[in-house]
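Issue 218. Parser rejects a valid record. Input:
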Amino acid sequence: MGRIAVAMYLTLDGVMEAPAWTMPYWEEQLSDFQDMAQKDADALLLGRVTYQQFAAAWPDSPDEGAAYMNGIGKFVPTSTLKEPAWNARFIKKDALAEIGRLRDAKRLLVYGSGQLVRALFEAGLVDEYREMVFPLIAGKGKKLFQGASGSRAFSLLSSQSTKKGVLLNVYRPQPGGMR
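Output the parser choked on:
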């Protein structure tokens, strides 16, 4: 049985854009939280912009996560990119329907990809949100649930705090979802 998990870096005011602000807070507990999500994934599901940013950064990266990021398969919904590279497969038509089929068969992990995550959220395709909430306010930038229609309810599966104050929360959408 597959599922879709979203791993997201957020500020206290919900900003997810350009997460360079995460670096001063990085530590082993945060790394372990990310490792658990990666070990439970068969493939990544990335939006086009995130895919392009990752494909430019990871292949030559000396970082400890490079082997994982370069080796795992990636699915990317796109109408503009032509030739997949970096161990990717492009989803060209009926993206949400195809992602729904993939979700039935694979455990997918989404990083970044705000526009994609919002579409998955609206379609009810996300099974788990792994939020890393950093103790700062960005003040401006794209927010995870910006423009979401209606309200939704979630169940907290786990929560912990790192020594540097990053909250590591795992949520599951409640059945029916609306409040």
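Fixed in the parser; the record now loads. The chain has a mean pLDDT of 93.
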